[in-house]
Amino acid sequence: EKNLPEEAKKEALRELERLSRMNPASAEYTVSSTYLDWITALPWNESTPDNLDIKKAREVLDEDHYGLEKAKKRIIEYLAVRKLKPDSKGPILCFVGPPGTGKTSLGTSIARALERKFVRISLGGVRDEAEIRGHRRTYIGALPGRVIQGLRRAESNNPVFMLDEIDKVGSDFRGDPSSALLEVLDPQQNNSFSDHYLDVPFDLSHVMFITTANILDTIPPALLDRLEVIELTGYTQEEKVKIAERYLIPRQLSENGLNAEQLKIESAALEGIIKGYTREAGVRNLEREIANICRGVAAEIAEDKIKEKKVTPKDLHKYLGAVRVMTDFDARISKPGIAIGLAWTPVGGDLLFIEATAMKGKKGLTLTGQLGDVMKESAAAALSFIRTNSKALGVPANFFDDTDIHIHIPAGAIPKDGPSAGVTMLTALTSLLTSRKIKKNLAMTGEITLRGAVLPVGGIKEKVLAAYRAGIKTIILPAWNKKDLEDIPVSVQKSIKFHFVNDMMEVLKLALENKGKKKR
Q1: What pLDDT is attached to residue 476?
Q2: Could you give the 3-state DSSP secondary structure of residue 248?
Q3: For position 43, what pLDDT does the model report?
Q4: pLDDT recorded at residue 330
Q5: What are phi and psi of 273, to 5 degrees?
Q6: d(Cα 248, Cα 266) in Å, to the nearest integer?
Q7: What is the reported pLDDT for 328?
Q8: Measured distance CA(371)–CA(421) in Å, rounded
Q9: Ramachandran area for residue 76 (φ above 0: left; ψ -120 to 50: alpha; else beta)
Q10: Helices 373-388, 422-434: inter-axial angle, 10-degree rounding
């Protein structure tokens, strides 16, 4: 009746024959009947027809998400290929980016555009291989893996199947789930995926798998090789304002029992929230702050204090409290020896203040602020470069003989590592030893070598967006990273002046104020 494939039909009939010889009260009878339920309930031949209307798909993506042009373009290309070649085995898309940038919701939009069923499973913390491949049918309570369970829930053999948090899969004595995912996600193998519980091959080639991750470093290379990575790096301030107006505010008004007449939030107030309360790559905290305002206004309306409210920047303190994000860059870099670097984090870019000071001593170099080994080596390389080129830099040749140098990076509770702080450390040290201040509203990133070359680094888009959010006006980048500007929005490129350098002497010339420049 179920029209099972030949192999599954044989297995089901074999189990049915065994079942007929068992005692209905026995544990074996329960195991066999549960297996029969599973094998007959799976959608072996049931599928939903694809809606490959590219124009409609584009409208759905634009309706659900603002920005994310690179991701949308790739999805439209995927659908176009499916329209021209229906039996094509498309790549496995992997959306990588900080939390709150819309990775999971893109999957639901793709399913809506294709008019397919949508299944999502979270792999965060999964350590047992049986979670993917299923348990053997040798004990009571055995179940198929999450992939087969998802297909049964979808009642279709071609859903959009999202594997969330693929970078957080663990491994221990029970096996390595990421190795089991290799067969699930490989288009050349998954047409005969064998779940341990079913013990019959199931064709997964019709399923559209989408994965999400915050970082790529923890994904095993063999698994990463099967994925096509699409980066969602973060939103600019203008994009966040638009997202808040189109999606976040209407959603929070509805959830808090308000309507658009009762509460209006000005664009200037949204900008104030973004600058003063939520310095992040995504929009999750922004939505939380909007929810705080909605609850505050809802309380006032419920108490009959007001009938409607228009929130301006002056009202933010009342509903959200004191400003949480510091913006006093000018005050923090008012002395020689302090420079602003750019750092990459799994939740987007961030600014890194590097402070250097000197005192009497005997050739000591102290590094504080929870620095990793790579950053410690960058500091040592920067000091060696200055000692080697002391004459060209205008530093006394024997300055280190009776001097101790201390480099500190504030936010000492946060571990920091990576090569991209080398340029900033060298600039801070040179600024200190030559008593020349670093120019205002300037940040930099890059790796250094002992000969003074500036090497390229990663995460440029996240770093530039972090600088833009903080109000930085000038950025010094390695010359090799010029190509990365293609990924940065045009509005950001216009508001920041970029300098591309090949060696440290160029950096120092751009970053340090002239020595003869004195205030009257």
Answers
A1: 93
A2: helix
A3: 87
A4: 56
A5: -65, -45
A6: 14
A7: 57
A8: 11
A9: alpha
A10: 40
Position 519 scores a pLDDT of 47
Cα 497 from Cα 399, distance rounded (Å): 35
**CB under 8 Å to 376, separation ≥6 — which residues?**
367
* Tokens describing residue 70: 């690179």
Residue 281 tokens read as 């790559």
Instruction: Please tell me whether residue 80 adopts helix, strand or coil conformation.
Output: helix
Please give the Cα distance from 230 to 413 (Å, whole number).
32
Structure tokens at 82: 């499916």
Residue of 356, 367, 373, 501 lying closest to 432 (CA atoms): 356
Residue 89 corresponds to which tokens in the numbers above? 């085995």
Question: How distant, in Å, are the alpha carbons of 11, 104, 254, 290, 309 from that of 263?
Answer: 62, 29, 11, 11, 5
Has this prediction a pTM greater than 0.85?
A: no
Say which residues have a Cβ less than 8 Å from residue 46's Cβ, sequence separation at least 6. Answer: 155, 156, 157
Q: How much is the pLDDT for 500?
A: 93
DSSP H or E run through 475: strand 474-478
Taking 50 as the pLDDT cut, the residues of the chain under it are 517-520
Give catalytic residue positions: 420, 463
Q: The tokens of 497 are what?
A: 């002046």
Q: Do residues 450 and 381 make contact, with C-beta atoms less than 8 angstroms apart?
A: yes
**Distance separating alpha carbons of residues 493 and 24, to the nearest angstrom:** 73
Structure token pair of residue 374: 């790579």
> Cα–Cα distance between 448 and 501 in angstroms, integer?
11
